[in-house]
Amino acid sequence: MSLVVLFIRALTLPFLLLLAVTSVVSQQSDECPCSWRDDNRSWRCEVPGEAVPTQCWQIHEDVRIIQFLVPFPIGSHDLNHENLLNVERLEINYVTSIAHDALRSLTKVTYLDIMKSNITRLPDLSSQTLVSSLDASHSNLVDAPSLAHLTHLALVSLHHNYIERLADDFLPNADGTVGMSMVHNSLTEMNASSIVQAPPLSSFTFDQLEVVWATQQEKDTLVAKNFYCNIDLLSIVKIIDDPTNP
């Protein structure tokens, strides 16, 4: 065997080994760390990581449930995949952050759970018009945006946060009663307009609420709708001038 052949082999063997190692590392990095259940079309992610395991989304079509049970930062495109368009139940617990538009493509979601997260504000929910249950409890929310477009909303749990303010049109005129838990927050006052659009017999719980600002018409509506509340709302109503009826 010539020296030239030996020299070429000496160079080729390490190169082939490098290729093999690179291939293994690449395959490992592309492996999906989440578990799949075919009976309910669900992904369940319990393995910690630095990013959402988007490599999973291409494996199965028609995903209906996503469960994150470990911390992830969720970016604008992390949940944007054609196989996720029919997701109905989204449980993204413990997220460290979530982009404002991260949920824009998930228009079929009816159950949204973002509890125990590090977020201070809810992401944009303008595309989630079918949501009936929203849970963002045990998080770091400081305010609550309008949910007026969620006309199927039946339950909203925002307890154990740092909420100081509710949007004036917070609760929707839903197609059924709404239950809202707002205990363990920093909410000491609110405008009646935040809840007055809710259907009659809806129920609310507060613990630090001291004042409800209302026009006379809004107070009359509170009486007529007979809301259930752990606080006597009518006893803490303060009438404000109605700019439309001076």
Low-confidence stretches: 4-8, 16-29
Mean pLDDT: 90
* Total beta-strand segments: 17
Number of helices: 2
InterPro entries: LRR_dom_sf
Keywords: Signal
Structure description:
InterPro entries: LRR_dom_sf. Keywords: Signal. Residues 1-26 form the signal peptide. The chain has 246 residues and is of the alpha/beta class. The protein folds into two domains: 29-140; 143-246. It contains two helices and 17 strands. The strands form four sheets. It has a ten-stranded mixed β-sheet, with no helix packed on it. The radius of gyration is 26 Å and the shape is elongated. The N and C termini lie far apart (106 Å). Residues 4-8 and 16-29 have low confidence and may be disordered.
List its salient traits.
3-stranded parallel sheet, alpha/beta, 2 helices, elongated, 246 residues
Topology (SSEs and partners):
Blueprint (H helix, E strand, L loop, with lengths): L2 H28 L4 E3 L4 E4 L19 E4 L4 E2 L14 E4 L4 E2 L12 E3 L19 E3 L7 E2 L10 E3 L7 E2 L12 E3 L7 E3 L11 E3 L5 E4 L1 H10 L2 E2 L7 E3 L7
Parallel strand pairs: 2-3, 3-5, 4-6, 5-7, 7-8, 8-10, 9-11, 10-12, 12-14, 13-15, 14-16, 15-17
Antiparallel strand pairs: 1-2
